[in-house]
Write a structure and sequence with these properties.
This protein is an alpha+beta fold. The chain contains 2 helices and 10 strands. 20% of the residues lie in helices and 39% in strands. β1 and β2 form a beta hairpin. α1 packs antiparallel against α2.
């Protein structure tokens, strides 16, 4: 086998190996939520896939992706930034509904809280899922009402160029360059 052929195969092998061993990003699962007869509405993202909603699963909520899209209780919550003071927030899912909301990585199992001071959105389970919006300064709230929670779709996480893939492509380029240098041009001219 000619050196150029062997180097060409090596080039393809390096590029293919580096591409296949590249860690692909996870997907985030988007959820729609509402309570208070649809007066409080929003979305959040969790770990897991849409297939995980078919059975029992422990979903972890990404509080940085918790959004209020409508609020009769406090309209300024739309587009507000939310935080958690007892990370990690999440819920247990049985295949059709949430059976428990938690915070503090599961240490506190009486609900999940999302804060945009002085306001708090709370999800819990009291026989069935419930939600509430409250103002911690005035102690006003809209009372716990039935919470509707629906998985929507998987959201691809943007792919980032990593050093692993970059080194593979550089290595493939370098081996290919060597292969081209090793090929000697023909000294014999073919006459027609």
């Amino acid at each position: 086998m000619k050196l150029a052929t062997r180097l060409g195969i090596a080039t393809v092998g390096i590029a293919l190996t580096m591409t296949l061993t590249e860690i692909k990003p996870a997907q985030a699962l988007l959820w729609n939520w509402s309570f208070n007869s649809g007066a409080e509405v929003g979305t959040f993202e969790t770990n897991g896939t849409f297939a995980d909603t078919a059975g029992a699963f422990n979903f972890t909520i990404d509080v940085t992706k918790f959004d209020v899209t409508a609020s009769a209780f406090e309209p300024s919550l739309v587009g507000a930034t939310f935080t958690d003071i007892q990370p990690t927030q999440g819920f247990l899912w049985n295949g059709t509904t949430a059976t428990q909301f938690y915070r503090g990585s599961g240490g506190l199992t009486n609900g999940s809280n999302f804060l945009s001071t002085p306001y708090r959105v709370t999800f819990g389970v009291s026989g069935s899922p419930v939600g509430q919006t409250s103002n911690e300064s005035t102690l006003a709230d809209n009372g716990f009402t039935a919470l509707t929670l629906t998985p929507s779709a998987a959201t691809p996480v943007p792919f980032e160029f990593s050093p692993n893939l970059g080194l593979g492509l550089i290595g493939a380029y370098a081996v290919g360059k060597i292969a081209l240098k090793k090929i000697k041009p023909s000294k014999t001219l073919i006459k027609a």
